Structure formats: structure tokens, C-alpha cells
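Troubleshooting log. The previous structure file for this entry was overwritten by mistake, so regenerating from the original sequence record. Sequence copied from the archived sheet and checked twice against the printout by T.R.
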Amino acid sequence: MHLPSYALFALGICSQVSVTLAGRGHKAGNGPPSVCNNEPNGLGGDSISAPVASKSFHRRRALRAPASGPPHPDWKRSLVERAGVISYDESCNAALPAGSKYGSGFSTKKDVVAKAYADAVELANQASVILETSSAFTNYFGTEPEHISHFRRMMTEIADNVPFFHVEFECSGSGGGCADKDAKNSVAVTDGTVGDNKVINLCSLFFTSAQTKFFLYDDTKGADPEVPFRGKTKSGWCNPSKKSNFFATAGHTILHELTHLDALGQASGLVAPAEGEEDAGRHGTGDYQDGCQLKGAREWKVKWEADKDEPSPDYNAESYAG
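Regenerated output below.
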């Protein structure tokens, strides 16, 4: 038996049950997102054939030269220059849409996003110490020392409380390209351009999707809690018959989006495309995998091992969220 990384990230709550947990769906390149999800979308329980948790961050980049040595010497400039920490646009103060099913204690979009961000930090904290020999790691990144280094640094920087960059969450549902045709099935759109002060736009589906309606396990909520939590039971996190989207959480989506940020990519030692190349100067991850979610991230690792001209897994956002 082997557990995928989501199972380990979820605080080891199901030590005796093999489960497969969901990532995000995305079609690499500039075409429309692939169909990755036919689970209920939270808007009444009907199934839809749409990638409700697709990440719309469409960009590919040329093969990068291997990173060597420490990150750029000014990657942690003074905290005066790097505003730091997290903020929320006024749109996040709005009430949750009617289709949301987060239960009591969550009345505004900010309530949900703040909890999802806290979960993303906890996921990164747990991942930062994962064994590099664990299949939960090697299934997505292989055994390349550089991949190990980039992964550890990315997770450590996300979990760290040193504010060397600033990101604002925007919750209108239509900001940052969420309303664009190519992003109509996306839950989030992240600004991955060069710089330290960036925005993660949360699309309308973030607050209604089946893949973002749950949070991480919380043992203070009792044995069989209601949405947005799941219990340590066979009908909850430890259900051996469930896989894929059933186990997705809002925190995994935020973790995926954070890896797109230029500041975090630079801090992790990721190498930006050279001047004259597509996305020159950007250090954040892209969405390169061809397949959907968790399976797609694993397949991308295998594809890269067969063709090193493709971007390696440490430059693929879903590999980190996997």
C-alpha cells in the first residue's frame, strides 16, 4: 500500500486506509481546460461535466537551464520593499453566494478564504518535512536532487511567517480574467508576473465547487462533523471506496495558486526564462501537465522522465498540490 501525498498532508489521519486524493484539473497550453470533474458542483447536487477546479494560468515556457547555487542574492529584499503578508480586497467582505454549503461559522467570502489560506500553510508545513524517499514525493517529483531542493524551499517559504512578499485575495468572482472564456470553469486566476505585490483572484466557482467546499480535518469538530469538515470515519476522510475529487479541499487550491507567484518561485530557486523567451523573468510555476489533477501530475513526471525537453515537475503547480 502507498499513500499519495494528500493522504500524508491531511495530518496522517487515516493511517490504515489507502486513499487517493484529488488535485486540480487543467489542460496545459492555451486551449480550453480539459474535462476533469463530473462531481456535484455544490449548486444543488447535480453533476456537471466541467473542470470546476481547473486552474486558469495558461502559460508554457522554454526548457530552463538547471538552477545552481543559492537563489538570486536579492530574493529577500528588505521588508520595507516587500510589503509582506496577506490582505483581502473589499469584495471578500461580501456574503457567500446562495450555492455555498460551508455551514455555520462561515458567513462571508473572507471567512472561507482565510480558513483555506490557513489550511494551505498547514499543508505546506507538513509537506516541508516529507521524506524524499516517500512515494508521496517520488510519484510527483522523482528523485532529482534539484526537485527535492525546490520542493522543500517552496513549502518552507509558504509555511514561513517571514513576510517577504504580499498577495491580496480578490473575491468578486470576475476579477483578473475569471470572466474570460478560457477561465469560465476555473476556481482561481493568479497573477504570476514579476513582482512582489500580487493578486489571487477567486472566481465564483471557488465558493460553490465540490472541490473547494471542504477544509482540512479538525479533531475539535467531533467524530462526524458537518460540511465543511469531514470526520475520521469510513464515510469521511477514511473512506476506502472514494478517490479523486471527494478528498479535495479549498486549502489545496490555495496552495496550488501560491506556487504560481513570482516571489515564491524566486525564493525557491526556480529559474526564470531568459530575456526574449516567453514569460521572461517569471519564476513561478506553470500548469504544464496534460492530464487532470492528481493523476495528471503523476503522468507529467513520467512524461518528463521520458522527454527532458518538457518542463520538469518542479515547475508544475499541481505537482506541489499533489
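Strands lie at 54-55, 86-88, 166-173, 186-190, 197-203. Archived copy saved in two places this time.
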